[in-house]
Amino acid sequence: MDICITIQNAYEKQHPWLDLSSLGFCYLIYFSSMSQMNRQTQRKRRLRRRMDLAYPLTMGSIPKSQSWPVGTSTGTPCSCPQCLLVNSTRAASNAILASQRRKLYPGAVRQSSTFTGAALWPVGTGTGGTIRGEGLRGSGGAFAPSQSVPGGGAPLPGLNNLNQPGTQRGTGLGARATVPPGVPALPVKNLNSTGPVHPALAGMTGILMCAAGLPVCLTRAPKPILHPPPVSKSDIKPVPGVNGICRKTKKKHLKKSKTPEDVVRRYIQKVKSPPDEDCTICMERLVTSSGYEGVLSHRGIKPELVGKLGKCGHMYHLLCLLAMYNNGNKDGSLQCPTCKAIYGEKTGTQPPGKMEFHLIPHSLPGYTDSKTIRIVYDIPTGIQGPEHPNPGKKFTARGFPRHCYLPDNEKGRKVLKLLIVAWDRRLIFTIGTSNTTGESDTVVWNEIHHKTEFGSNLTGHGYPDPNYLDNVLAELLAQGISEATLKD
Known about the structure:
The chain is an alpha+beta fold and about 500 residues long. The protein is about 20% helix and about 20% strand. Strands 4-3-2-1-5 form a five-stranded antiparallel sheet, with no helix packed on it. Strand 2 and strand 3 form a beta hairpin. The longest helix is centred in the N-terminal third of the chain and has 24 residues. The radius of gyration is 34 Å and the shape is elongated.
């Protein structure tokens, strides 16, 4: 295995000690006293060197371990639980791949590359030659004499190494071939990027597949392309058919012209003989008094009065509608709790900020014939107002300015115009709890999805996505913003 090869190499080079942290073991080996120390418990025990190997040989590049002498280029090996898990799982996976390679290439011999930083199978420079290297034998000794690899210098298949040092990655990139057919690759999520497979799940998958005799390779997850290439100011143009390039919002001023009673009465019609069914707000029967009787009282509105909304026809107690309105944004609009139909102009609780939009000379995946509309939202931190969850308390604004992208076609420009209306009505953002970080009292998206990846769709927030424009139009319609709004 990798551990045996590494220890043998350090022993032959007469290194006084060897650190095995990078191989997934928290041990220090002292060759002078032939002892092993646990770095966590500080417990020591004696070691004995055997000439036979109890485990199958391993083929694959070995992660660079820390051994004496320690130079400035070696660095400190990472011993976090994630790296220990990945390294130990990869070692088991390498053993399975090695056995398969020995069946495919019976004359192939492993070349040691632990301390040299070289690739596992160097690429031959000529034809008809052989590749020389150090080899291991199964019993009777630690290292065998140099042997040749038949095949005229052709490289053998390598494998993707998750935590390969920088020098090895650079030299092994050209020599490393593809993973053998039928070997699944798991793109593992790491601390610095995203990926579809969590490291714990990848580790368990690797262990189970290796136990069943099936190989698996752990690979680096691809990184999302969030931003386009740099664009000069001279290449940034206004969006055709859209006035201006910037919108700003200020603090909300509540409309004091209409009382809550006036708003409710504006959108309902009184029902003299209501049906014997439930009011979906208080869950009491419409033929009885409102469940808010005694809790909320207003002059001119009796608990037993029932009203019907004009557009959708759903019926509620007037007192229930009044309680619902007082518990909302109080912006002069009303929304049916059953079918979500909006009466009036719905506005939100978005904090003050700035929205910019312009055209850049790059194309989105799936829209190669169109340029790109870039939207930049910028909201600073501030103090919550009376319409926010915690008035007077500070709110945070993480990740601003936020860049979003639309294709520059007819439907993309239509979406942009509607997004501008939604921004003016303060419906793009709100203050709440982040689903990503769990932080409360912070600026979050408000049910209108945006595409924040420019050149990929690894997180689901990028392109290509042929249904996105239709979906966002439906989300805007649910907020009371449609093409009819633009005509008004």
